[in-house]
Every structure is written in structure tokens, then in C-alpha cells.
Amino acid sequence: MTEPLAPQYNPAAIESDLYRWWMERNLFAPAPRGTPYVVMMPPPNVTAVLHMGHGLNNTIQDVLVRFERMRGKAALWLPGTDHAGIATQNVVERLLAKEGTTRFDIGREAFVERVWAYVRETGATILDQLKALGCSADWSRTYFTLDEGLSRAVREVFVRLYERGLIYRGHYIVNWCPRCLTALSNEEADKEETDGHLWHFRYPLADGSGHVTVATTRPETMLGDAAVAVHPDDERYRALIGRELRLPVVDRLIPIVADEAVDPAFGTGAVKVTPAHDPTDFEIGKRHGLPSIDVMTPEARMSLAAPDRFQGLDRYEARKRVVDEFEAAGLLAKVEPHRHAVGHCYRCDTVVEPRLSEQWFVKMAPLARPALAAYREGRLRFVPERGGAEYAQWMENIRDWCISRQLWWGHRIPVWYCQDERCARIVASRTDVTRCPGCGGGVRQDEDVLDTWFSSWLVPFSSLGWPDATEDLRRFYPGDTLATAPEILFFWVARMVMSGCEFMGDIPFKTVYLHGTVRDTQHRKMSKSLGNGIDPLDVVEQFGADALRYALVAGSAVGTDVILDPNDIITSFAPGRNFANKLWNAGRFILSNLAGPTRPLAGRAKNVVRRDELSLADRWILARCEAAVVEVTDALERFRLNEAAAAAYRFVWSDLADWYIEQIKPRLYGDQPGGDVARAVAAQTFDVGLRLLHPVMPFVTEALWKRFPGRHPDASISTSPWPRSDRRASDSDALRRFGLIQELVTAVRQIRAENSVAPGQNVRVALGNLGPDARRTLTAELGTITRLAKVSDLHFGESTERVGGHAVLTDGTAVFVPLGDAIDVERECSRLSAEVERLLQLITGQEKKLGNQQFTSKAPAAVVEREREKLASWREQHEVLARKRALLGCGNA
Ligand SMILES: [Zn+2]
Ligand SMILES: [Zn+2]
């Protein structure tokens, strides 16, 4: 690491070496002592491929973890992968389909074996991909939700909840995916607004004395109707309650019942009741003792309970046929377009079918109570706060959680059924059961597996060794921050709070930071199916991990989404790469000037830099540095990661590299005294700048920081102390006075640029309306001004010349730059004249075009608008040039 810095920053040449170096030194493990800071990584699916959403989520976590690690905390970022029941099973099922076979053909055992083989082969690739981003998770603690330890935790939790009566089995209407052939939780059935229809059907009274009209969005379910219900107080139907209808198509008699659940204001006020296919109807059916007629197979085809001619038809074919038959019988009252929310399987997007089936559920209300209290009492905090309101609303309206899945990949439900019908005992057990504990007879284990989230809701403690009382558990539970995309607030975050309260007696984290989503410039979520994604690893390869991280952090203000342009990744990621280059170049300059150890700026050493040795620029950069420390620290504490990045950027790029280093060059080159002081100040402020930036850009900062002379070869910036605020360094006098010099230099540079003064050409400057304070400051820093603004003569007082550029500084100082001798006025005038002439022609032509009715009425509005904008911009340029001509005293064009 002692070879000289390459002239160009090349991330590919250093990133993987640095990462290996960090790993070899075990820098990501929590320090053995100190206050813990714990972050649980949302475990990616074991078969997942890294996308920009992971990139954002993990960069944010890494920034927080690196920040707290540098602040001296025993930081633990705990990684893992999720076995992802449905998702992984689907992947392997697709592989089997390619081989012309199915999971049913090869059987459960062989299938599970096959999934394990697949997971071992491809799994956890995503964790290696996270390493390429620089993520500083403690990989030695990586877990998998199907590990033995975590599986033991799952069983323990199941059995405890079962024994407390909080897990039960029952026949209920669940969300069913006819493609995945499994039940889903309410959260797994994504509601999507869909354009459908509302069909109005007439059901004749059995005695032929009239009919009742009902409406439905799913006509095929009428084959399973068991009644029609009306509100008991609905005058229109009071006389009909208890009478019978003849169900069309099926030709079966069904009663008219009265039930409070019916909304008299909705539709006709009479509703069909299909207990086997709708959750509300199921409840009504229970209250009135109605039969549940299940007319569909698990694949959503019509079952044997449907009339013969419907059996085997797909649900949508059956729908069409039912409608046709109503129409043919003259019983179709009307059809209306109808927009409504339809559930879709979150794994395969198939329309979910509400289906009656026997499933396992968790009673959630008792678990929600302490989790809601933690939020209400302010122990659990959300950033941004609106996440808390959503959390509370979900908790208040919580429904029981369907946890059984008709899959083979996952934690098998730890319940055994006695095979002896007279005993029929059901046992939930922590260990496998082979004999019935009641009668000693044979047993059969439940076929289903648990919802994937039934293991991930436990990770804040199961990943630390629970149910054993491990040292890790004692030290690292509860954790601190959970950073996640809002999509899994209910799936995961809320449930972790509940399990933490129930099994650990405390919430698992104190703050939930809900960050935005990565979207394209049309605000569409990046996704494989839309083809609008950006591969984070491509970005790392082309621009470096630091550039990727910088773009993600700089773009993520609290409560907003991150916008990236998949068609223009240069615009998105070049700023970060340019910043890394700027740091590299500043570092090269500073480090090449630090021949030996520098003098200390504080402390009791004999050679300590005394305050009276500091120049105005030294005092100014130390004050700016102090301000940056306060700003960056405060922003990170408040999860304003983008503000932290911006403050560090301003300090390093503008203050340090563009101003301070430029200002001290004469001292460093030895033609002015105080070179050792400048070196000491540059070294310290650059060191601070690198540390402030390290959480966001870990690689380039480490590469430079390690090169400081005298650095111990094992020292890493990632475990160096976070810069401390030192109020003695704040210096409003230096900020104000150096600020005035910056303003003056900037004004002169701007006048030079606007008037095309050659870069090597010196200019004269006259300052009017000068206060005594400004005069003192500018006199003292004459050298800085003349050098940085290329000024040959600074005149205190008004100028008598006419030709030149003006500016006024914020303190009222009038700046005049005479240009008569700095540029060839005659040539500049004729150049400007030609330009003004050209613009005038353009403007005249454009005015004619826009004055033409033919054009403005026929062209698309956007085109006309663009033409108007062009005209406005030409007029503006024309004015600017005309003003310049006046300043230079050019004659009439
Ligand atoms: Zn599905
Ligand atoms: Zn038994």
C-alpha cells in the first residue's frame, strides 16, 4: 500500500482488494466491548438476484452501520437469507417443467431434495453481490431461515402459541392461488384496481309471484348460492323474508334470509349468499345454518358440486356460460361496467380465488395489543412519521393470519394427527412425534408448511440463538434501527414487533426507517417485467461502488422515491464518479505535500500550532470543517442521509479542494512562510472530510486515508473515530472575512468569463463603496485575491473608466473590472454585433411563425409550446448581449 497513488482513480483496481483487506481484519464483527448498535438486514430471498431496490436498501443500512461503528458503538449488521417458500418452489417447479416433469411426478421427498440442491448451488449469490457494494455486514453470523437453529425457533413459537390457544385450525374462506395451489395471507393477495362488470340477475320466487334482483361481479359463484339475504329493516323485502326462490341455472330452492350484515343502500339491497366462495357470505351462512357448496376445484375449475354441464370448466368459461343462460332465460336484468379491487397472487400474479378450506391461523389481536402500545407510548418510532399511522391502522384492524401453505418447501407444520379414529388426538410438538401420546397408535404429520414470514417474523431473536439464552441474544437484543422499503411494513416489520413483544418481552428495534422506492424517470417502479431496471453490478463495474452508493444516498430524501434513468446511466452515476475523482486528486495533492509527520493542531506537544500562527484561510477552513462535522452528524442522526452527503460534498469539493488548497499553494511551495502550518491544517481537515464521507463512499476514502504518513499499517478508517465537534473551531469572524474574499474572487471570475477574457490575461479591479472592515480584510489578503482572480492591480476607489463589468457584493462593495485593456474591445464589439444581428433574424422569423394562425391552430400544443420557449430564450440572449455591448461602449450595430 505504499506505492504512489495512481494518477487516475480506478475503482476496479482497489475495491475488491480493500474489501478483502477489511474481511481479513474482521472489521465488520461487533467490537467485543461498547454499546451495541444492531441492524437486522431484511433477508433477501435465497434465490434473488441483486436489483437496485436491494442496492438502495443495503446502502442505506451500510451508511448507518458504518456511522455508528465509527462513533464507537459495537455495530452489528446481521445478514441472512430467506427460504422464500412460494418464490423458491416456483423457480424449481419451472425447472422441472422444462424437464417435462412436475413435483407431483417426482414426489415430496425428491422435490424438497431438489430444491435444497438448487439452493446450495445458486443460493446466497446475492450476499456476495452485496459485498461488491461494500456492505459491512457481519458475514460470520449469516443465517438461513431453514437453518437448524431458526427451525427450532419456529417450532418453539408454533407450539407456544398453540398451547396458549393463539394458533387454531379451522374451515374459513382464504385467499387461494389456483396456480400455486396454496392459501395466501391477506397481505400476500395484492389488491389491484381492475375494470370488471356488475351483472344483475333475477331470481324468481318459487311460487312464481315475482322475483328478487341480485348483483354480482363473479357470476360463476351463483352455482354455489345457498340463499339470498336482505337487511331485516328493509321495508321493500320484509314480506319476502322466509320465502323461497328458485335458483336459476341450478334449479334449486334457496331461502330469503334477513341479516344485519347486508347494506340496504348497496345495489338492490338483496345479495346472493355463497358461503363457500366469499368471506362475508361465509359468516352469514354460519349464522343461518346454510350449507357451504364448494363449486370449484383447487385449480379454479368447476367441481362435481356444479351442474353436470359446468363440471371441468375454467372459472371464466363458467362465468360466460352462466351469463348466457341467464340471458337466454330472460333473467339478466342488466350489466354495468364496474371498477373494483381484485386480489392477485404476489408471487405469480394469478387472480386469487376466495376459497373455503381448512387452514391454520394465528389469532393476532392479543399479539397486536402490546405492539400497538409500543408505538402509542413513543417507544417505537417511524421515519417518516406517516409510516406509524399506517402501522397503527393495520394493528387496530388486524385480522387473523393464515399461516398454512399447501407447499412442500418450508417449515413443515409441527402437528401430528393420531391415526386411530377413536382417539383422533392432535399433538403440536417441539420434537418429531412417532407414536400417539394418548393411545400409542400411529401418527401422521400435517402435510402443509408454514408461511415464509412465520420464520422471518422471528429473526431479530432467532438469528441470535433464541430459544437458547445465548450471549449474543443477551447483548444484541433489542436492536436499534430497521431500514426497509415500505412494501414489507405489514408482512414483516409489524409482525416482528409483535413476536418481539410476545417472546422477548420487548420491541425488536426502536426506529423504523422507511425509505423510498427506486423508480425510473416516468416514476414507474424498476422491474424485470417492465425492462426498466439498472443492474447495480453493471454500475459498480463502470463507475465504482462509491459512485453507485453516492447516487443512491444523494437521491434519497426522507419520504421520497429515488429516481434513476435507465436510458441514461451516465447522468445518474457520473456525479458520484466525478466526486471520487475529485477526492482522489485532492488526496494526491495533499499527500504528496506531506513529506513527514505534520505538526499537531491541538494538545500539549511542544511543536503544537499556536492560534496566532493560523492565517485567515486556515481559520476559515477549520471553521468550515467544524460546521461540516456538525451538519453531517446531525443529518445522519436524523436519517437525512442525502443532506449528510451534500454537506460532506460541499466541504470537501468546494471548501477544501477548490478554495483552501488553491489558497495555500504559495505557502506549500515555500515562497511564503507558514508552510508547515498549512500542511498541518490541510492534513487534519482532509482527514476529517474523508471520515465524514466514509459511510457513503467507503472505498475511495479508505484508499486515501490509509496513505497518510505515520498511519499504522493495520489502521482502517472504518474503525477510526467519527470526527468530534469542537466549538472552539467555530469562527464567525473568519467565515465572514474569507467569505468576502470568495465573493470578490467569484465576481471577478464571472466578469472575466462573461467577457471572454483570456485565461492568462490579468485584469485590474476597482472597488468602490468600501467599508473599513472590508478594506482591512481585502488589504490583508491582497495576495490571495490577485492570485485566485488573476488581478494585476486592486484599486481602492471608483474607476474613471467606462468600459468594463460591474458587480455588487453582499456587504455593498462595488466591484468594477475595467476591460478596455484586457480585451480587444473593437473585436469583441464586432463579434457581439454579429451575434446580435443573427439573434434578431431568428427572433423576427420566429415571431412570424408564431403569428401565423395556420401554424398555431394546427400544430400539436406541445410543439407550439416548444417554439414559444425558443423565442423567449432568444429574446433573453439578445438582451444579455445588448447589455454587454453597452458596457463595452460599442457603437450602434
Ligand atoms: Zn400464485
Ligand atoms: Zn391416539
List keywords for this structure.
893 residues, alpha/beta, four-stranded antiparallel sheet, four-stranded mixed sheet, 28 helices, 43% helix, 16% strand, binds zinc ion
Describe, in plain words, how this protein is organized in 3D:
The chain is α/β, with parallel strands linked by helices and 893 residues long. It contains 28 helices and 29 strands. The protein has a four-stranded antiparallel beta sheet with strand order 6-5-14-16. It has a four-stranded mixed beta sheet with strand order 10-11-9-12. Bound molecules: zinc ion (2 copies). One zinc ion binds at residues 177, 179-180, 345, 347-348, 350. Residues 177, 179-180, 345, 347-348, 350 line the site of one zinc ion.
State the share of residues found in helices, binned by percent. Answer: 40-55%
The parts where pLDDT drops under 50 for at least 5 residues are none
Cofactors and ligands present? zinc ion
Sum up the overall morphology in one term. Answer: globular
Biggest beta sheet attributes? 4 strands, antiparallel
For this entry, what is the oligomeric state of its chains? single chain
Tell me how many strands there are: 29
- Tell me the strand percentage band: 15-25%
Strand order of the largest sheet: 6-5-14-16
Query: N-to-C terminal Cα separation, in Å?
Result: 64 Å
**CA gyration radius, whole angstroms:** 37 Å
Mean pLDDT: 91
> Which class of secondary structure composition applies to the elements?
alpha/beta
- Continuous helix count: 28
